[in-house]
Amino acid sequence: xxxxxxxxxxxxxxxxxxxxxxxxxxxxxxxxxxxxxxxxxxxxxxxxxxxxxxxxxxxxxxxxxxxxxxxxxxxxxxxxxxxxxxxxxxxxxxxxxxxxxxxxxxxxxxxxxxxxxxxxxxxxxxxxxxxxxxxxxxxxxxxxx
Length: 145
What we know:
By secondary structure, the protein is of the alpha+beta class. Helices cover 31% and strands 23% of the residues. The chain is globular, with a radius of gyration of 18 Å.
């Protein structure tokens, strides 16, 4: 979790799946990253289309049998961070026979180093992501992949 010493970059990833896709392996990987302290899970939301084609959020337990996964972690991370514009943007990318899984997380991979820097007077002044298209251009690529 973000502290007064260090807040890792907050980012998100959105994955589209066919309805009925088994999520257990991926959800286990997310749970392992949380347990290892690599990420802090801020939100995980499933989005599907209702019969009229409008985006709607779906409970993970309606999509996925627990299959040995402690779903408490994921239920606790459903924080309603997505607004109507976010839902619309996701809806235009999925078909009626798909759903999307949105994961919002804080990257904690540098937390141990940040605490070490803080002990010697270091203070975090910026953190954030780099747009992949900008990175691609910077390393000499013409078009983003």
